[in-house]
Amino acid sequence: NAGVMQNPRHLVRRRGQEARLRCSPMKGHSHVYWYRQLPEEGLKFMVYLQKENIIDESGMPKERFSAEFPKEGPSILRIQQVVRGDSAAYFCASSMGLKETQYFGPGTRLLVL
Amino acid sequence: DQQVKQNSPSLSVQEGRISILNCDYTNSMFDYFLWYKKYPAEGPTFLISISSIKDKNEDGRFTVFLNKSAKHLSLHIVPSQPGDSAVYFCAAVIAYSGAGSYQLTFGKGTKLSVIP
What we know:
The complex is a heterodimer.
Chain A: E1 5-7, E2 10-13, E3 19-24, E4 31-37, E5 43-50, E6 53-56, E7 65-68, E8 75-79, E9 88-95, E10 103-104, E11 108-112
Parallel strand pairs in A: 2-11
Antiparallel strand pairs in A: 1-3, 3-8, 4-5, 4-9, 5-6, 7-8, 9-10, 9-11
Chain B: E1 4-5, E2 10-14, E3 19-25, E4 32-38, E5 45-51, E6 56-59, E7 62-67, E8 72-77, E9 86-93, E10 105-106, E11 110-115
Parallel strand pairs in B: 2-11
Antiparallel strand pairs in B: 1-3, 3-8, 4-5, 4-9, 6-7, 7-8, 9-10, 9-11
């Protein structure tokens, strides 16, 4: 009974490169949330997706960030042309439905050099 | 503007005693509250939640109290155990508005250390 899986767990990128973060929700879960945690901060909502649809991206920076949750395969958070300020822990959560408990993955720690 | 505040960055408690973690919120639209526990290098783990129509919810050693008029909630852990040492996040959500994405708004967390 696997939980939410995220990979990679750690990712190092140089400024200007692309970062691609993957999230596989728990079995039976079709709702995915992405959150970002900066050092010494709480988690901040970025985007909410259901299969093949972005429902709410109000927390996503307007440029360089995108997310998808295809019919098959994991959800992907993509950051283009990374900058040092993108260094953070990125957590994915999944739930069985709207207003259901969100279960979090272990996170991807992105370091931009 | 932080809508969920945990004003104590850290708390130390003796094993066997009560741990009380506090959380304040400013947005009166929040109607559902959750506590998550987080160990280093792991994701947050759901602990306990409470709806705004209740003032108390209990699950084993964990009890959450909600004071709507004060916009304040607290998590009580009795008795505290060394394995409870972690960062505890308070989170709030607008659950019953009929719209929205159920996004969680988190506080910055309180690091609890339970001393054996």
